[in-house]
Design goal:
The protein is mostly beta strands. The protein has one helix and 35 strands. Strands 3-29-30-31-32 form a five-stranded mixed β-sheet, with no helix packed on it. Strands 4-35-34-33 form a four-stranded antiparallel β-sheet, with no helix packed on it. A hairpin with a 5-residue loop joins β11 and β12. It is globular. The protein starts with a strand and ends with a strand.
């Protein structure tokens, strides 16, 4: 039992591990965004509390473009830039803690067990110490890396434009297995239990045994995929360069539904955000769509100023997304209706996806500015 000692509680020693687990599982504290879409399933959602109106809390200027989402862990933001540096910043202030010169980077960083993992355009995959930026190891792929990493047990998974998904020992960088597809791997892989899912330029969603790298199923998407597949339950959702969003029942495996806009069809390069009821995704037709997760029926669409390659994120009853306009429009939309709640103008086009950490949203621009948005 808990013994009352005033405004706080003193717990018996035997309860401390239980209380620690309860606190760790609490949805009220969602301060980390360790991988590209926030979690292993790549769903692009956060159990956080953002303010009703976003204000600029701080900015940090890189010397070249930011193409990818930052990662956040333990009060530190990690952002990769085309200026060849990986930066570690204080989440509270934006103050630089360290920077590591690695190579031009379009890929988002990923964090696990005190290390940061990120690939560069020359095909080198880096592992550095999260506290210092000190290099731990690197692995040479045969092509550009635009995909963020994900994790399975003691291993790290990353795809490359050399048409390969690599599984590496996260501690040493030694290859555990690889899986070849017929075309570049552009996006991160989702991980659910002992399954991982990879889509790329072979127009196929592959389901693999994450322990061995062996195929356990595949579905023809009908178009090449630049986006990351998001998984919710038994279904994976991915946009294609063939102007469609495809839902796959990966347990069958087979297509569950296909969505294609009725007019001005353009590719879907953005990855979807998936909730209990909706799939929210941006298109190069200058729209953001919300689709019924079960049927694929369009619930609403929102017209933006430019193409949408940045992947939306969903927090509570709102969706957040930027577009490629030169005036840097970033939108806050009502999740139920698609109504615009707020529009911010950042300093340049937004190709990068957002990350959410606690009560702040972080997003970079093609002018190399990382914005921390929240309550001042």
């Amino acid at each position: 039992r808990l013994q009352y000692v005033g405004p706080t509680f003193a717990e018996p020693t035997m309860l401390r591990p239980v209380l620690a687990l309860l606190l760790a599982a609490s949805p009220l504290v969602a301060a980390d965004w360790p991988v590209f879409r926030g979690g292993p399933t790549m769903a692009g959602t956060a159990d956080a509390k953002l303010p009703d109106q976003l204000d600029e809390r701080w900015t940090f200027k890189c010397k070249d473009e930011i193409h990818s989402a930052p990662a956040v862990a333990d009060g530190v933001v990690y952002v990769a830039s085309m200026d060849k540096h990986l930066y570690a910043l204080e989440l509270a202030t934006g103050k630089e803690k360290w920077k590591a010169k690695l190579g031009m980077m379009k890929a988002p960083p990923a964090i696990a067990a005190g290390r940061v993992y990120v690939g560069d355009v020359d095909g080198k995959f880096h592992c550095v110490d999260a506290k210092t930026g000190e290099a731990k190891w690197n692995f040479e792929c045969g092509g550009e890396i635009t995909a963020g990493a994900n994790f399975h047990g003691p291993n790290v998974l990353v795809g490359s434009h050399d048409s390969t998904l690599y599984c590496l020992d996260a501690a040493t960088g030694k290859k555990v297995w690889d899986f070849k597809i017929d075309g570049p791997v552009n996006g991160a892989v989702a991980v659910v239990g002992d399954r991982t899912f990879v889509a790329g330029c072979d127009s196929i969603l592959h389901s693999l045994d994450a322990k061995t790298g062996k195929s356990v199923g595949q579905v023809d998407l009908g178009g090449q995929a630049a986006a990351t597949a998001a998984v919710h339950g038994n279904f994976a959702y991915v946009g294609t360069m063939g102007n469609q969003v495809v839902a796959v029942d990966w347990t069958k495996p087979k297509k569950a539904w296909v969505f294609e806009p009725k007019r001005r069809q353009q590719p879907f390069y953005a990855s979807a955000a998936v909730t209990e009821s909706l799939v929210v995704v941006g298109s190069r037709d200058k729209k953001v769509y919300a689709l019924d997760r079960t049927t694929g029926a369009e619930k609403w669409s929102f017209v933006t100023e430019a193409m949408v390659d940045a992947s939306p994120v969903v927090v509570g009853n709102r969706a957040y997304v930027g577009c490629l306009s030169s005036t840097g429009e970033f939108y806050v939309l009502d999740l139920a209706t698609g109504r615009q709640i707020q529009k911010l103008e950042l300093d340049g086009a937004i190709n990068a996806s957002s990350a959410v950490a606690g009560d702040a949203l972080l997003v970079g621009t093609e002018r190399g500015t990382l914005y921390c948005l929240g309550k001042k």
